[in-house]
Amino acid sequence: MAEEVPAELVRSLEGTAREVRKEVIRMTFAAQSGHPGGSLSVADILTTLVFHELRIDPARVDWPDRDRLVLSKGHASPAMYATLALRGFLPREELSTFRQLGSRLQGHVDRTKLPCIEASTGCLGQGIGMAVGMALDARLRKASYRTYAVIGDGECQAGPTWEALMAGGHYRLSNLVVILDRNGLETDGSTEAIMGIEPIVEKFRAFRYHTIDIDGHSIPALLDAFAEARRTTDGPTAIVARTVKGKGVSFMEGKHQYHGKAPNSAEAEQALAELSRGEGAPS
Amino acid sequence: MSAFAVGKPESLRDAYGKALVALGEKDPELVVFDADLSGSTRTILFGQKFPDRFFNVGVMEPTMMTMAAGLALQGRTVYASTFAVFAAGQAYNAVRQSICYNQANVKIVATHGGLLVGADGGTHQIVEDIGLMRGLPGMTVIVPADAPTTRAATFAVADRYGPAYVRLTRENLPPVTDGSFAIGKAAELRSGSDLTMVAVGSLVARALEVAEDLQKVGVSTRVLDFASVKPFDAPALLRAARDTGAILVLEEHSVLTGVGALVASTTSENSPVPVRRVGVPDLFGESGEPWALLDRYGMSKERITEEAWELLKARGKVQ
Ligand SMILES: Cc1ncc(C[n+]2csc(CCOP(=O)(O)OP(=O)(O)O)c2C)c(N)n1
Ligand SMILES: [Mg+2]
Q1: A203-250 pLDDT, tens per residue?
Q2: Taking CA atoms, what residue in B is nearest to A188?
Q3: Does residue A282 lie in a domain region?
Q4: Among the atoms of ligand 1, which is closest to the Cα of residue A125?
Q5: Residue A189: which domain range?
Q6: Integer Cα distance of A27 and A115 in angstroms
Q7: Is residue B314 less than 8 Å (CB to CB) from chain A?
Q8: How confident is the model at residue B1, as a pLDDT?
Q9: Chain A contact present for B281, CB below 8 A
Q10: Which residue of B has its CA nearest to A189?
Q11: Which of B111, B93, B109, B90 is nearest to B101 (CA)?
């Protein structure tokens, strides 16, 4: 329960998530391309995973028993790179090379260039299937590692998403956790106006997932949900994380226009000022 | 600097979106599909004008193709757009069976073909789509080099019953044609007798630039725009083979399966001459500034010029 979560841990993760958001703004501004909206919405999820939930070690990226994290919505790469950099998996200075020729930080996460990435993604609908494959490997090898897949809600319109979810449910993969970044928006507008995915909690349940519905910007709620997933031993867990696209930057919040549009210099300046203002403030 | 470079670069995608609106006015039955990229593909222009006949179905490209086929099989002309990697890649078997095998009247207009996608990186830069689509029985394949040809091709595929794939480039391109495109016909953009360049899409402008430079040192280069990849203007190719005796193919596509492979096989079966291919080697692309990627992956003007000299040497036209 939330009251058991140490306040110090929550404060520290909130501070890290704010740093991740600032890096997202800096990276997309410097590249003048990339996807700020879905990177800002997923920042608290990735921060909680990478800084607390996952058993990983920057000094041993090939540790066989490390937990696996698959960012199926691979366009949220800025948030992924920023989180991994802050955790020590790559130099923070390297973030400025995002999307440039020769960089390890490709537009969409790329395992062949950056070893701490478990699976290359970019075309939506493929990350969950790879995560299911990883979870099956752990079961076959009797390995202790757990697999986490982060997916988008527009991505839930894609058939392969449901094929892979069906497989995870069918094989009762209790070592698999699927986190849905339910920010309500895709490229062209709202998911419910374009191709509705509701009732999404019921869908996950029908696909045989222990399903937890939470505020995806609440660190205590995320910590609780991941703990509950660990306690769930009879099948996979789905976490429906209710989020706001563009979270933390007033003029990007709830705006599909910032799905794939970088901030200009005035916007970047304002965004960074807003994110800094939140520093130390109680949440 | 070169004689042809008259206009400034224009958006092929805008030309497509506007042509779609004109088609929608002409044909009240025409339906358009998109998969959550309508702002980028510009089908949004049609959607704003004819909301009842526009279906933005979200992230479900294979099913978009099957739905488009279902409507087309009821007698409608249907356009379906998304990025090329999703149209030809993600949806391949839906295009193959529901559209081509069914002979459904669906026109796939795919934007963001090739490396000029730029910063999104290798996952999104499909350089195999021309090969995939050209291999489908009954498929018409068009690769416009500029906005006027895009507009003309958008209309031309409507006038011809059956499946079509039109590959557009994300980057703006300078006009190099007068838009007098016809399916099955190559356009001779420059006459010449020492060498022929066969080019498609973004590399047509580069072909013309290099041809202009070669002229300054006395080499006369014919430039053919092969926007109609299938059906292919074999007579124009074989005439060029006979007249100039050497062919350089330029395409922003894998050299394994693209227009270069087509040109090499067509000439070797009918009128063997030396052929060299400039295009993407057997590699995935990566993030980068779009035009810098063309240079990095072997399609720079310098590289094209070197390949031209190799051919002239092979023909004994220079030492
Ligand atoms: C198969 C596929 N189709 C289309 C795209 C282009 N695309 C990239 S992101 C996106 C919208 C995704 O929406 P969502 O999953 O909700 O992502 P988020 O809101 O978390 O950014 C689309 C259509 C893609 N990457 N993959
Ligand atoms: Mg979304």
Answers
A1: 999 999 999 999 999 999 999 999 999 999 999 999 999 999 999 999
A2: B36
A3: no
A4: 1
A5: 7-276
A6: 20
A7: no
A8: 35
A9: no
A10: B36
A11: B93
Distance from CA of B3 to the nearest CA of A (A): 32
pLDDT of residue A2 exceeding 60, the answer is no
Dig out the tokens for B243 from the structure: 């007249």
For residue B272, the distance in angstroms to the closest alpha carbon of chain A comes to: 39
- Per-residue pLDDT tens over the stretch A76-109: 999 999 999 999 999 999 999 999 999 999 999 9
- Kindly report the protein residue whose alpha carbon is nearest to atom 8 of ligand 1: A75
B47 CA to middle of ligand 2, Å?
Answer: 22
Beta-strand relationship, A147-152 and A176-182: parallel
pLDDT digits (tens, 9 = 90+) for B270-307: 999 999 999 999 999 999 999 999 999 999 999 999 99
Q: What are residue B278's DSSP bridge partners?
A: B250
Average pLDDT along chain A: 96
Per-residue DSSP letters for B141-187?
A: EE--SSHHHHHHHHHHHHHS-S-EEEE--SS-B---S-S---TT--E
Please list the ranges in chain B whose pLDDT falls under 70. 1-6
Take atom 22 of ligand 1 and give the residue whose Cα is closest. Answer: A187
In this predicted model, what pLDDT tens digit does every residue of A160-178 receive, in sequence order?
999 999 999 999 999 999 9
Residues of A with CB under 8 A from a CB of B: 31, 33-34, 74, 99-103, 105-108, 110, 120-125, 154-155, 157-159, 186-188, 191, 194-195
Structural domains in chain B, sorted by start: 12-167 (3.40.50.970), 187-314 (3.40.50.920)
Residue at A143 is within a domain = yes
With CB atoms and an 8 Å threshold, state whether B287 touches A157.
Answer: no
Q: Which residues of B touch A108 (CB under 8 A)?
A: 120-121, 123-124
User: How far apart, in whole angstroms, are the C-alpha atoms of residue B53 and residue B30?
Assistant: 7
Q: How confident is the model at residue A4 (pLDDT cuts 50, 70, 90)?
A: confident
Number of domains within chain A: 1
Task: Residue B37: list chain A partners with CB under 8 A.
Answer: 187-188
Q: Is residue A205 part of a domain?
A: yes
Other beta carbons less than 10 A from residue A15's beta carbon = 14
- Asked whether the bond before B231 is cis by omega within 30 degrees of 0, the reply is yes
Point out the ligand 1 atom lying closest to the alpha carbon of residue A259: 21
